[in-house]
Amino acid sequence: MEVLFWMKMLLRYRGYTKGPDGMLRIVPEEAEIVRKIFDLYVQENGVRKIEKYLEA
Predict the structure, then answer these.
(1) 41, exposed or middle or buried, with CB in 10 Å at 0-12, 13-18, 19+?
(2) Phi, psi torsion values for 11, nearest 5 degrees
(3) How far apart are CA 53 and CA 25, in angstroms?
(4) Are 32 and 14 in contact (CB under 8 A)?
(5) What's the CA gap between 29 and 35, in Å, rounded?
(6) Count of domains forming the chain
(7) What is the spatial distance between Cα 34 and Cα 11, in angstroms, rounded to a whole number?
(8) What is the residue range of 35's domain?
């Protein structure tokens, strides 16, 4: 499945942080919304529909 560019950028900055050892660590509060965005995308929702969901 092709991942949209904006989703790659979102996942790079949301849901993770770098630990002192340089490894990525999950930020639970942010990871929850990243999972929701992914679920909406997998359910074939478009970018605009996901955007409206997030703004609601």
Answers:
(1) middle
(2) -70, -25
(3) 26
(4) no
(5) 11
(6) 1
(7) 7
(8) 5-55
**Hey, CA dihedral for 41, 43, 44, 46, is it positive or negative?**
negative
Query: pLDDT tier at 2 (50, 70, 90 boundaries)?
Result: low
Beta bridge partners of 25: 17
What does the pLDDT look like over 11-44, one tens digit per residue? Answer: 566 788 888 998 888 899 888 888 999 999 999 9
Q: What is the DSSP letter of 17?
A: E
pLDDT at 51 over 80: yes
1 pLDDT higher than 90:
no
